[in-house]
Amino acid sequence: MALTIPEREVLVPANHPVEDAFFAASAAVPRGWRVELIEGQIHVTPPANAEHEDFVSGMHEQVRDHRRDVRIYHGIGLKLSGPDPSLRVIPDLVVAPKRAFQAELEWHDPDPVLLVAEVTSKSTARNDRLKKFRGYARAGIPLYLLIDREAGIVSVFSRPKAGQYARSESATLGEKITLPKPFDFELDTAEF
């Protein structure tokens, strides 16, 4: 079987586990591309556009302004638990306590994570709305912030329990939405 990646081709022997193909694809993609393993499928995403990065930067700035005691990570890999032990994702933004992750690891345990955020793109919206939502809830990540550009909605999901988020709040993009504890401030999406 051949897995074609722009400008590169990775040969993966037939009947090899999907995780082996995932690592081969990860090694082959150009710098800046993301390779994720979500519910048994490999997803390759090109670098984000400027609008996407404006949203991520806007979230970063507001979290930093309200919580100087945490670190905000971009492009850090998380290995999530769940029915698929090889679920590996790279959220657009991760907030965790300082020094929560070991520098030498590429994939990190999500236990110290306080918040993950995703900004949808046409190519990632389904994963962000459904598959990553399920993965983050199953992993017990306290807050999931979803900026759905296509729908024009921002949502905050909290209180993970039994693989679901028990609470959610949504607002129209351009409005404010409250990030619950441990953040406890209003995120102004008009700033994006």
Level of helix content? Answer: 10-25%
Low-confidence parts = 1-14
Protein structure class:
alpha+beta
Average pLDDT? 89
Strand order of the largest sheet: 5-8-10-11-12-13
Largest sheet: 6 strands, mixed
**Shape field:** globular
How many DSSP-defined strands?
15
Amino-to-carboxy terminus distance: 43 Å
Total of helices: 3
Please tell me how large the radius of gyration is. 17 Å
* DSSP strand content: 35-45%
Return the string of H and E elements: EEHEEHEEEEEEHEEEEE
Concise summary:
The chain has helices at 18-28, 50-66, 125-138; strands at 2-5, 8-11, 34-38, 41-45, 70-73, 77-80, 87-89, 93-97, 107-108, 115-119, 143-148, 153-161, 164-172, 176-179, 185-188. With 192 residues, it is an alpha+beta fold. β1 and β2 form a beta hairpin.
Provide an overview of this structure:
With 192 residues, this protein is α+β, with helices and mostly antiparallel strands. It is built from three helices and 15 strands. It has helices spanning 18-28, 50-66, 125-138; strands spanning 2-5, 8-11, 34-38, 41-45, 70-73, 77-80, 87-89, 93-97, 107-108, 115-119, 143-148, 153-161, 164-172, 176-179, 185-188. The strands form five sheets. It has a six-stranded mixed β-sheet with strand order 5-8-10-11-12-13, with helices on both faces. Strand 12 and strand 13 form a beta hairpin. The radius of gyration is 17 Å and the shape is globular. The model is unreliable at 1-14 (pLDDT under 50).
